[in-house]
Amino acid sequence: MAPTPVSSIKIGHIDDIQELRKTQPMAVPDRYVRGMSERPTQLDSAPQSSSMHVPIIDLSKLVGGNENQSHTELSKLSAACEEWGFFQVVNHGIDLGLLEIIEKLAMEFFALPLEEKQKYPMAPGTVQGYGHAFVFSEDQKLDWCNMLALGVEPYYIRNPKLWPTEPVHFSETLETYSRNIRELCQNLLRFIAMSLRLKQDMFNEMFGVAVQAVRMNYYPPCSRPDLVLGLSPHSDGSALTVLQQGKGNSVGLQILKDNTWVPIQVVPNALVINIGDTMEVLTNGKYKSVEHRAVTHKENDRLSIVTFYAPSYDIELGPLPELVDEKQPCKYRRYNHGEYSRHYITNKLQGKKTLEFAKIQNNISS
Ligand SMILES: O=C(O)CCC(=O)C(=O)O
Ligand SMILES: [Fe+2]
């Protein structure tokens, strides 16, 4: 989240989905009904075979395993980043009690009366606070979702007025949670560098004081999950994203693999990690920032707590020379990361479109 743009955007009236559900549980306003090509066909169906499961990486084998184990896990990690752009990490070292508490507090926040949540309003065209991000016009289709998004690090991106004082302990728990997730990201970046045969601190040193933001997405049930999307298809602008799915969640996250939407199963105590656009650029497309979306459920609600981890805004980025050669010519130009972040947050979520910002045009192997 780059510094927020000043805007005079007109987005029209937006229903708060939770309130709508209370008064008209069966209603699906037109602004939420997707065109035929966007409607989800597979909802929470199980993947056809185990080869359709996102790889599971055991971090304890990378951190403390014997040479054989860590070598195997590192190969799994590199295959996951290349072929899936997603993996789930288990034994990640974060206290499971803390994951439970943040989930409980997030659920309590969304359960507050609307007037309380509206004390932290997300202004149109901005991405922090409670509301709908990435809405720029009155005719844009909307996501079946309520969100609370907050800039966390560095401190200057925070808007302290938007940090909830209810439920009590929300803000301090988010602080502890974010510190833990930051360490996890730094750890993962070390292993990702190793998997690319780069110096292990390459990314952590390059990123400077990394930017970290959190988005809590709450998807109420929907009487017509076949007509709406919880979250529009997009890739993340981050380097890495860490996504915590609510414990009892039904399946809702789907990723686009070989032109098919593949659901991500809820693995107890695991965190879902995905490669964002920034890492795709740095690796010259070797590691993929994969398009994903969220679908809703007829009876169940769903929560995701998502952390975006990215380089400091002031750094200049482009494909690493180590990953550019005759076979893999340079696919992306160099640019300032802050500029890319601004571009990302001032455009609606639309598949991988935002990455076109960085693509070198007339690229033969895009
Ligand atoms: O809720 C989910 O599973 C997807 C969330 C997501 O992709 C995001 O917040 O960027
Ligand atoms: Fe995402």
Automatic annotation (TrEMBL):
Q: Is Iron among the key words of this record?
A: yes
Annotated keywords: Iron, Metal-binding, Oxidoreductase
Q: Is Methyltransferase a UniProt keyword of this protein?
A: no
Pfam families xrefs: 2OG-FeII_Oxy (PF03171), DIOX_N (PF14226)
What SUPFAM superfamilies is this protein classified in? Clavaminate synthase-like (SSF51197)
Under the GO molecular function aspect, what terms does this record hold?
A: metal ion binding; oxidoreductase activity
Q: Which residues form the Fe2OG dioxygenase domain?
A: 202-311
Q: Of which family is this protein a member?
A: Belongs to the iron/ascorbate-dependent oxidoreductase family.
Supply the name of the protein.
Fe2OG dioxygenase domain-containing protein
**Lineage of producing organism:** Eukaryota, Viridiplantae, Streptophyta, Embryophyta, Tracheophyta
